[in-house]
## 1
Amino acid sequence: MVYIQGHSVPQANHEVLHELIAARNELAQIMGYRSYAEFIVMPNMASSPEVVKSFLLEMSKMIKPKADEEFEAIKNFKRKSCGQKYVHLEPWDEAYYTAMMKSSAYNLDACVVASYFPLGQCIEGLKMLAESLFGVTFHSVPLAPGESWHPDVLKLSLQHPEEGEMGYLYLDLYSRAGKYTGCANFAIKGGRRLSETEYQLPVVALICNFPGSHNLSDYQHFSGTRVALDFAETPSNLFEYYAWDYRVLRRFAKHYLTGEIIPEKLVKSMQGARDMFAATELQRQIFYALVDQTLFGERLGQTRDTSSIVADMKRQHTSWNHVEGTHWHIRFSHFINYGAEQSGASYDDCSFIHVGYYSYLYAKCFAATIWQKLCQEDPLSLTTGTTLRTKILQHGGAKEPADMLNDLVGDGILRYCNGGIVPDITSFSDEVKLMEDKQEQILL
């Protein structure tokens, strides 16, 4: 009842979505494009919706057998739990039974995990990672009168031993009434060359909602995360590997009372629970990206029945059935607020609307290749960090993403496809297969 109710309102959003599709299509036509999807994808690595779709269908084909296996494993678990020979698996069963299966397999207690990650220690972990990889240090900076928008805000400066001050980071980490509810990075000021002798330092803000209380880009337009939409998520996906690697975690994850370093066995259980239904989650992300491309693509026309289109796509591209009368897509905010501005505002501003959900999947594939080829052997190496900085991070959008990626790891990170660029999925596919091998015994 809760699932159906939650996925069938608000009805008024049907008309809002229809108007959005029509307005975007009109904008694209005015700009000389066949669809809004083409208008958005053209300046990026993919270059065309056709290239995006071919990549998504390739990913869908790769993951389907494993996702079907996970679906059957969940179904079998439900059958045993209910004591019935024949059961149907409904979409609302997923969260319930997968949580039970993870608990049964790994006996994880969220409170125990959290006890090793007090916020202060996590900030120390950030400082450790920055110093180990890039040789830079964070220092607290007093806030000037009127500079802060709330007393909780902290200000840090980033210092390099040879290059000096490199920029500033505001941390607004605690939840409070009326605050933006997500977790995001916002560019306040981009780095840029002001003159031959003067450089404007970049300023960013990291906004979260935790409980409690000189080789530089010359132009602000290309600074930081002002990059191709389907490249922008790559660094954050890469650093997620660091957040799960025990060699990194043992350097800062300590019990908030005893100071005990997080046990390796606990981290392995966390990793196992994360990977247990990885194919199902990946299949869902592929489905979302396909819906995103389809609703704002050339062939949708003037149809108002987006629900039927989405329902058909769910049956085609996932292991799960569609529940009649539900319309999850009218509540999917990524259709509205994902993306970067084409004309130079920060990628993180989320102030322009893009058909860019596929870029999350591009980033996963690029990050998997970079991790395996460059970072995995010695993730905290200063040499590794220097390579990442000089070949990728310092350039922002001032160099072509494909050139930077090839320069970073050489062959095997991307492919040219019908005039566009797609990630090579080999490393990511190997990673998924490794997860399969680890989970097969548990699921059976």
## 2
Amino acid sequence: MLFFFHPIKFGVTFTFDNLLALGSTAFLIGPKRQVTMMLDPVLIYVTALYLASIIIALFCAVYVHSKILTLFAVILEFGALFWYNLSYVPFARSMVSKIMVGCLDTEF
């Protein structure tokens, strides 16, 4: 309910939760290893999208104060978080990509 009735408050909370999750993994495995893993050539684009979506969500919620833009930014951030997490599971991104192509293919 917070997502639809108070999207700005939800956007700020969700974004800070994601930053806390990144910080906690850096605490568990060490900040150097975390940054090294995030800057891996396979993960660099996903990491850039994820960090950019965090910045966009905070910008829309705190600076712009637009409920619609914040909703879109949070949805973008959730998608980037999902894709970022799939990057750490072997073959997960290719499997989800094939499933999405199969579901969205309109030819029979």
## 3
Amino acid sequence: MATSSCLKLGQKLNEGKTKQIFELADEPGHVLVQSKDQITAGNAARKDQMEGKAAIANRTTSCVFKLLQEAGIKTAFVRQQSETAFVAAHCEMIPIEWVCRRVATGSFLKRNPGVKEGYRFSPLKMEMFFKDDANNDPQWSEEQLLETKLSLAGLTIGRCEVDIMNRSTVAIFEVLERAWATQNCTLVDMKIEFGVNVSTKEIVLADVIDNDSWRLWPAGDRSQQKDKQVYRDLKEVTPEAMQMVKRNFEWVSERVKRLLEPQASGRVVVLMGSISDLAHCEKIRKACSSYGIPCDLRVTSAHKGPDETLRIKAEYEGDGVPTVFVAVAGRSNGLGPVMSGNTVYPVINCPPITPNWGAQDIWSSLRMPSGLGCSTVLSPEAAAQFAAQIFGLSDHLVWSKLRASMLNTWVSLKQADKKLQACSL
């Protein structure tokens, strides 16, 4: 891996308690985020050196951002540059910490007497805090943020931008929550920050997400917590205590790598009644690839060669790989019903509708004999999405792509509405 020394550093743009930000002279619009071996608590009221923390934090952040980017979440992260630094898009940071909570604990209990620790928020509880060390990062309301009319990199933070950050925070938490669940670990709460990319003028997830950013309880047990709260709770900072904190941070940095690994492999098998349906089927395969799902295309007719159709079915049932069959047949659809009646695997009808006979042909996919459970989806892309939703129940990486796609669709609509309103005015 390339080291930070390979890069031509420009001026230092910022230095916080745990990191430094440098311009990159040879990469306009990008910065180097250099972590430090420092751990703090209570706005640096407690501050200690922890050898190796910079590398641990950088590994954690890099893995988390890779997971989110592969899902489709927009972030400032570009690449891990060295053991202790990563390259990111240059952003003007929005001075708000967005806090998302699944379980009530910590400062929330102090601010909300009567709520017991462990209370579960469904939907998630959202809070925001203005970054102001001198005043201990006061909690803000949406109204305060809107009335401040912050302007960063030429973008004024208004209702549209606040709503985008709010929705994005929920989606990011849910993606990471589902990922950590694969390790039997509860993501209790999390804080993140957003910035405005100075080149694109869009809001992206920025800063870092490391073991300072969340609470993690293995098996949902607070006594096993692995996050920075262990350091906050120390009655006395001793070398032995700091070694325990470091072991917890290392545990997280090792486990976080596993979040990038799929939990289950699956595939979609598209059965077309005729090679003339190939273009329709290719759209399904292309959409499947966007979710990271392998897709096989086969030609078989349940009317003209039912024995071969069932042989192909048995071929895919025999290797134990979770499979969703998609039946693509025009005119009289025999593929979907025959497959559904002879396999317990999910079957989706996706008939290629033609202008002349489509209204009549569709009934062979909609009206099934009793005991058959195949669904019918007309859009090739939607058929692939439906298959992805099935696999997403057991594969957090597929689920994350679906969740990010849902977020990005919402953001696009929100931005389109803002643009239209601006034109109307």
## 4
Amino acid sequence: MITAIARRAPAASLTRLVFSRGYTSSLKEGSVAQSQGFSKKEKAHEDEYARRHEADLLRKLKAEIEAKKDELAKLQEKHDEVNSKQ
């Protein structure tokens, strides 16, 4: 809330409008963002998102590891074939 207050400037004899900001201490305006319950709920949602994201990354990494293991087994078989022919 911005309020206009007419005051006399101390250094000059002219009257000036001085704008001052008056913030309300009431929790009625914008209280949702400041309330304790909201921040706990928001943190819970963020934590849940982080857990899901990390679980998804782990699934992808495990799939990549399995693919690399399969590739390594095929290469090992080829290597064994080449060495057995020599």
